[in-house]
Design brief:
The structure holds 2 protein chains of 2 kinds. Chain A folds into 2 domains: 194 residues, TIM Barrel; 47 residues, no CATH class. Chain A is α/β, with parallel strands linked by helices. In chain A, the strands form 2 sheets. An 8-stranded parallel barrel of chain A has the order 1-2-3-4-5-6-7-13. The N and C termini of chain A lie far apart (41 Å). In chain A, β4, α4 and β5 form a beta-alpha-beta unit. By secondary structure, chain B is α/β, with parallel strands linked by helices. Chain B has 2 domains: 296 residues, Alpha-Beta Barrel (TIM Barrel); 79 residues, Translation factors (Elongation Factor Tu (Ef-tu), domain 3, Beta Barrel). Helix content of chain B is 27%, strand content 24%. Chain B is built from 10 helices and 21 strands. In chain B, β13 and β14 form a beta hairpin. The chains are: A alpha/beta, B alpha/beta. Chains A and B meet through α4, α5, α6, β8 and α7 of A and α3, α4, α5, α6 and α7 of B. β9 of chain A pairs antiparallel with β8 of chain B.
């Protein structure tokens, strides 16, 4: 079992390196859901920290971005990193066409929900799967028991729950001649706050809570993911330290959907 | 000139028949594993009846099997596919590629749902090699993207032309899961994108005249149909499996007319603005072109405080007609009365008249029809047919 963590900046990568095994690094222009992204040169710096490195390319790829994507994949290939966490299927096709050797991690966010599909991608050469956060613990265990793929599972951090191409905040501001000073806003409903981030690539909305399932036994899972976004860097470091030392962290326990099955037929 | 398929939604057998009668070449329906879990979905028996009905008309039926399966659904799906194969449906619409492998043991054609968000030719190429015969493109595709995919990848393309839009990339919204514990990617979407929220920048409430919402206007591609035909798009899709027979009939008929008029004589084709009025009136929501033209700015957002007026234009459905007495048997859908000026429309007719003689089910004279689904008779000067509809002028 490896501890994987997203990072907000290089300094944070250095600060947490004793407590993690793998960095998950969002890449400039091709990642979404992460307020901070990294240039290729910075990935070289992160590689020097001698940990596993997975680059995140998780935006929906539009047709006019294919040339840039192909160039990016070729450049990443030279970095000898441990894998690319991908959303768009174009990445599989380009990778196969160019016979790229960098491993792929299937991460279709809310769609990685059963072992049949995990195995489908495994047979296509995608040996890692990053499971949906909307699964129960039992479903995760079932997937693990029915696949050879290595699995990533989120256990700490804010969770993205909506991704749009549209500029939903900017459209509202433009419509009603309003101005915002900050890069990230919140929307409130029934006394719950949800962070909303309108970027060049579109708009993302995050859970109102921090998933904190660090006391649950996931020893069967290959990569346990801690997400650093919107978390104070000192607090985040402490969370990782606590996990390493098998201690509870300061955040309230929150198990998301791990023990709460969603319904879909209301009758 | 290749005429594209006009593909309509059908929430049940009645709507399937109406869609095909009013001009759809094919319908898509929901079975046991589709993204409208709370619609009146088709049983296998209904799918068989609907498929037989469509095939008699030389038309097609596609079954949506497009949920993001969890393990328990995955374990049941193979058997379901065999049943669909035995029925002889023309294709299944999937988003989960695990089904591709399972469907290889059947004769089912595979259409890839818009839920898979195919936006580019590399992804399209991948799916083609996997045996997918048609891709329902992501709604975020612009016309240049569609052209490039069509010109470079030899695969059938299906494009949405009318109906509601997801505010998110398809498949990338689980607001329902988080806010209502209903799984949007398994058909439980509770349309949180239409809810109002308070938007804050730090502690400052960013408050416009209407509340913040993700909600977008609907899609209407009516004026771009000739362009889509010229681009050789294979199938033009209307959204709305939970819509009424009146909505389905009206929308299908309008697009049928546009396609036929353009294909009949492209050089002399002129866009008929009256179609826009009809489309606007039946939906009661603003419709715009959206991503096709690269437009996803403030003009496409819908800030209305969730106040939508119910359309009450649909007055009744024709159940029968006696050519000797000129009496039509009508099932009421909205209030009407003697003296109202109304319009009859059917797959091949439109005419207006004023209601003069109106009777109840026992043929007693009647002034007002106010009871839901009330059966009445009314004198109609021209011949009407079963499944013609009566609406307000």
């Amino acid at each position: 079992m490896f501890i994987a963590s997203t990072i907000n900046n290089i300094k944070q990568a250095q600060n947490i390196k004793d407590y993690i095994d793998a960095y998950l690094v969002p890449i400039k222009d091709f990642s979404i859901n992460y307020p901070n992204t990294f240039k290729l040169e910075e990935i070289k710096t992160i590689k020097n920290l001698k940990k596993q490195v997975f680059v995140i390319i998780n935006k929906n790829i539009h047709n006019n971005e294919l040339t840039s994507l192909e160039n990016l994949l070729k450049q990443i290939e030279t970095l000898n990193i441990d894998g690319i966490i991908f959303y768009d299927i174009s990445i599989v096709n380009i990778s196969q066409k160019l016979k790229l050797k960098t491993k792929l991690v299937w991460n279709q966010e809310h769609l990685a929900t059963n072992y049949g599909t995990v195995n489908y991608w495994y047979e296509k050469g995608v040996k890692y799967a990053y499971l949906s956060s909307e699964l129960t613990k039992r479903e995760i265990d079932e997937i693990k028991n029915n696949t050879k793929a290595k699995l990533f599972v989120n256990i700490f951090g804010y969770l993205p729950m909506f991704t749009s191409r549209r500029h939903l905040v900017q459209n509202y501001l433009d419509t009603f001649n309003l101005n915002a000073q900050n890069n990230i806003q919140t929307i409130n409903k029934e006394e719950k706050d949800y962070k909303i981030n309108d970027t060049n690539n579109g708009t993302v909305v995050y859970s109102n809570y921090i998933l904190n399932a660090t006391d649950i036994d996931f020893s069967n899972i290959d990569y346990l993911v801690f997400s650093s976004i919107f978390i104070d860097e000192n607090d985040f470091l402490e969370v990782l330290k606590n996990y390493k030392e098998n201690k509870q962290n300061k955040f309230p326990k929150e198990t998301g959907f791990l023990y709460k099955e969603t319904i879909y037929k209301v009758k | 000139m290749k005429k594209p398929e006009l593909l309509a939604p059908a929430g049940d057998l009645e709507r399937l028949k109406i869609a095909l009668l009013y001009g759809a070449d094919a319908v898509y329906i929901g079975g046991a594993f589709n993204l409208r879990a709370n619609a009146d979905n088709f049983s296998l028996d209904d799918i068989k009846k609907g498929t037989d009905y469509a095939h008699k008309l030389n038309k097609k039926v596609y079954v949506t099997v497009n949920i993001a399966m969890h393990n328990k659904e995955y374990e049941k799906i193979a058997n379901y596919l065999k049943n669909l194969d035995n029925i002889g449906v023309d294709a299944i619409i999937i988003s989960d590629p695990a089904i591709i492998k399972l469907a290889k043991d059947t004769n089912l054609q595979i259409h890839l749902s818009t839920q898979a968000s195919t936006l580019n030719k590399e992804a399209a190429d991948f799916w083609k090699k996997e045996g997918v015969s048609r891709i329902v493109l992501a709604r975020e595709c612009q016309k240049e993207d569609i052209t490039d995919i069509k010109n470079n990848i030899g695969i059938e393309l299906e494009v949405f032309i009318h109906g509601a839009m997801c505010a998110s990339y398809s498949g990338r919204c689980v607001l329902s899961n988080f806010l209502t514990n209903r799984d949007s990617n398994r058909g439980g979407c509770s349309q949180i994108c239409r809810w109002d929220f308070d938007l804050y920048d730090g502690k400052k409430h960013l408050k416009g005249e209407k509340p913040f919402t993700f909600c977008t206007k609907d899609l209407s591609m009516a004026k771009h149909i000739p362009k889509l035909i010229d681009m050789q798009i294979d199938s033009l899709k209307i959204e709305g499996r939970m819509r009424s027979i009146y909505y389905i009939a009206t929308i299908v008929k309008v697009y049928r007319q546009i396609i036929d008029e353009y294909c009949h004589n492209p050089e002399k084709y002129e866009y008929n603005l009256k179609y826009e009025d009809i489309l606007r009136r039946v939906a009661n929501r603003d419709s715009v072109t959206q991503f096709f033209d690269g437009n996803f700015g403030k003009e496409v957002q819908y800030y209305n405080g969730r106040q939508e007026i119910t359309n009450q234009d649909f007055l009744g459905l024709v159940l029968d007609y006696d050519e000797n007495t000129h009496l039509a048997k009508i099932e009421q859908r909205n209030y009407f009365k003697k003296g109202d000026k109304v319009e009859i429309f059917g797959p091949d007719k439109n005419f207006q008249f004023t209601i003069k003689n109106l009777y109840d089910e026992e043929k007693n004279p009647l002034e007002i029809v106010r009871h839901p689904r009330q059966i009445v008779y009314l004198e109609i000067p021209q011949k009407v047919s079963v499944n013609d509809m009566m609406k307000m002028c």
